[in-house]
Amino acid sequence: MQLLFKQRFFSWFDSYDIFDETGAVAFTVKGKLSWGHCLEIYDRTGFHVGTVKEEVLTFLPRFALYQQGQYLGQIKKEFTFFRPSYTLDCNGWQVNGDLFAWDYTVTDPAGNLIMQASKQLFQWTDTYVIDVVNPADALLSLMIVLAIDAANCSQGN
């Protein structure tokens, strides 16, 4: 399954439309006024399915992930000098990023690919292509990409 993550051009808060491979809206993401980033995710019918909430007063960005109000885990940025690194404490998955914080893969404990995300360069707004192996992992994969994008935004990248 492929998702296209595209930030809206005119928006006071973080707002994104997430399209599936047919071009239909699969998810809508709306930012809420709060301390730190708080992103609410809605499915194509408008039902609230997930939340990515930044935990404030931390040295490096950290985000809690919720699916329909149920805490799934967190993703946090690690202190590194060159390659950005994130720790994910959900499902045993591991996040691996490239040098410029534009491309990421997520693997399970056995090393199997869960998803791959690539930032599209030379776009007016933040745009990512997310390839998800199992469509059941689409929502959590989207939450991971949203958290990484928000972390990069928080640190001015």
TrEMBL record:
SUPFAM superfamilies: Tubby C-terminal domain-like. It holds the Pfam family LOR. It comes from Neglectibacter timonensis. Gene3D superfamilies: LURP1-related. Coiled coil: none annotated. It comes from the Bacteria. Belongs to the LOR family. This is LURP-one-related family protein.
